[in-house]
Amino acid sequence: MSPTEKSPVALLHALPLNSAMWQAQAAALRARGHTVLTPDQRGFGSTPLGTVPPSLDTVADDLAALLDEHGIGSVALAGCSMGGYAAMAFLRRHPHRVRALALLATRAAADTPEAAAQRTGFADLMLDDTRRDHLIAHTTPLLLGATTRARCPGLVGQVTAMAASADPEAVAWAQRAIAARPDSLDLLRGTEVPAVVVTGAEDELVAAHEAAQTADALPRGQLVTLPAVGHLQPLEAPDRITELLISLLDASAMADLHREGTC
Q1: N or C terminus: which one in the chain shows less Cβ crowding within 10 Å?
Q2: pTM surpassing 0.85?
Q3: For residue 212, what are the domain limits?
Q4: How far apart are CA 67 and CA 69, in angstroms?
Q5: Can you list the alpha helix ranges (DSSP code H) found in the chain?
Q6: What residues pair up with 197 in beta bridges, in sequence order?
Q7: Could you tell me which residues come within 8 angstroms of residue 7 by beta carbon, excluding any fewer than 6 positions away?
Q8: What are the pLDDT digits (tens) for 110-158?
């Protein structure tokens, strides 16, 4: 791809939502001339779960196959929460297909044994018909920051409805896949592409020091903290996330021009 062309972009959604969470960013980037892919990850939206065992490697290879279908060699890759974990799995398996990287509400470190057990326990509860509704109602609002919950009750309702409509089998599959993921800090230390790590100041799931650790591991990483924002940054601060993605894409284009100029 010529560096004067607009880099394709892939946006990977959070658990337990679907690709609709990226609607604002996808529209803005397409308006700038980018090809934007917003796949529903395995088991979510319009994508069937299938029968393979839980693994983020499978999700990564699904994306690689989608790129092949579209004739796309490499992309700027952004993922939020689960999408970020899938992005790192893709980077591990297909490193030369990543032109730029945005990790939102995501940690690079593997789960502790206690955190992994909590995820698998959550997966079990999702499959319990007698407890699922209470679990969704209790946990889903925590995906949004306290300020968002207070100011935007409509968004709380929208996110809760999306979570309630998700296939319980897919949510359980995804939680088990995330719990089994490896540590990615060494992977990021060897990743020489423009990168941004975004954390919400009111994120109750990924701590600020975890986001800082992720950004510090990236040789060209930038850490951005969004005030009054929680875990679902593309929904809580859509314009700011769009701006950050545009800046990342511009940095990637400049890097491509520099490489071409030094050949």
Answers
A1: C
A2: yes
A3: 9-109+182-261
A4: 5
A5: 23-31, 56-69, 82-93, 113-126, 132-139, 146-151, 153-165, 168-179, 185-189, 208-217, 233-236, 238-261
A6: 103, 223
A7: 1, 34, 74, 75, 76, 99, 100, 249, 252, 253
A8: 999 999 999 999 999 999 999 999 999 999 999 999 999 999 999 999 9
